[in-house]
Amino acid sequence: MASLFFALILVGVGVLLLYARKSRVGSVSAGGQLNQANVGKIAGMAAPLFFVLAIVVLAFGSFVTIDPGEVGVQVFFGDVQNDVLESGFHAINPMINIVRMDQRTQAYTMSAKTNEGQIKGDDAIQVLSQDGLTLTLEVTVQYHLSPASAPKVYNSIGLDYVEKVVRPEIRSALRDAAVNYLATDLYASRRDDYTGLVKSKLLAAFKTRGIVLENVLLRDILLPEKVRTAIDEKIAAEQESQKMQYVLQRERQEADRKRVEAGGISDAQKIIAGSLTNQYLQYNYITTLKELVNSKNSTFVITPFDSKLTPMLNVNPNK
User: Fold this and answer.
1) pLDDT tens readout for residues 125-175
2) Domain for residue 170, yes or no?
3) Which of 88, 269, 298, 318 is deepest in the core (most CB within 10 A)?
């Protein structure tokens, strides 16, 4: 649009020069009257130059290049057009104004740390849990502008849609979701569930505003020191309980193994006892005595006796 106005100015100057040449209007100096013919000649030479410059400016204004990661919103005398210009080279109506909007991934961070995030200073958000405790959250939300919805966003919200939509919706979703969880759950076991609930709320809120949610990153949860100490002690106690359950289970398995082993030994002894007859014992007794008598290490062999076995005394003749 600016190029069109500049071209019109150049055309106007050219028209004035042509008129000056035609009328040969001069000015009067202190020494007398100027040569009107020279003035008309200069005006006649300059006028075409202004017309050429106007054409060049108008030609350049009829083309536009949209950079990568941007979309161009076309505005025709205050009327926002529905067609968007993607990145690349385009021929346009020189009377249309192009508004560039970023469609790359953007990250909105709320942090308690200084100079981290869009708001300088402590921008962490405080929420209330289901049990009434105040938690301080540090979060980063990744999103991008929907290219097809860029005209709608520019027309209904403006270029400052981050301050008007993104930030308020993030804060609202974090607070609305926190009341469904206990502080201990958010700090320990159900952190992912909370992040998922926040993400679902933001998806619905952003969708109607032409913004696409990519991810929600819950960076940190800050608790009061006493509450944090109590939670850490509870977690440590739960871990110790799980350890003891493991030890008890291992001991039960070892006891079962020993019972099985004892049962096997008992069964083997029963089988052996059932096969030990008197005749077999006498035979084994005599065989063992014979081996002892013939052994080089034995000099005297004294054997017990009963009603069926006579005492035996032997001296090894080799000794």
Assistant:
1) 999 888 888 889 999 999 999 999 999 999 999 999 999 999 999 999 999
2) yes
3) 298
As a whole number of Å, the end-to-end CA separation of the chain is 133
Q: Which two tokens stand for residue 88?
A: 């690349």
Calpha distance 183→181 (Å, rounded) = 6
Summarised one tens digit per residue, pLDDT across range 225-259 is: 777 677 777 777 878 888 888 888 888 888 888 88
Q: What is the pLDDT of residues 237-246, one digit of tens each?
A: 878 888 888 8
Per the prediction, the chain carries an average pLDDT of 78
Q: How far apart are CA 63 and CA 91, in angstroms?
A: 4
Final residue before a domain boundary, out of 198, 223, 248: 223
Q: How far apart are CA 125 and CA 120, in angstroms?
A: 14
The span from the CA of 110 to the CA of 118, in Å, is 7
Close Cβ partners of 183 (under 8 Å, ≥ 6 residues apart): 129, 130, 131, 133, 135, 223, 227, 231
250 belongs to a structural domain = yes
Indicate if 137 and 155 belong to the same structural domain: yes
Q: Are strands 97-102 and 63-66 parallel, antiparallel or unpaired?
A: unpaired
Q: Which residue has the tokens 């974090």?
A: 174
Phi, psi of 81 (to 5 degrees): -80, 150
Range of the domain at 116: 106-223
Cβ proximity of 54 and 17 under 8 Å: no
What is the rounded radius of gyration, in angstroms, for the C-alpha atoms of the chain?
50
Same domain membership, residue 51 and residue 19: yes
Which of 166, 154, 157 has its CA nearest to residue 119?
Answer: 166
Burial class (CB in 10 A: 0-12, 13-18, 19+), 241: exposed
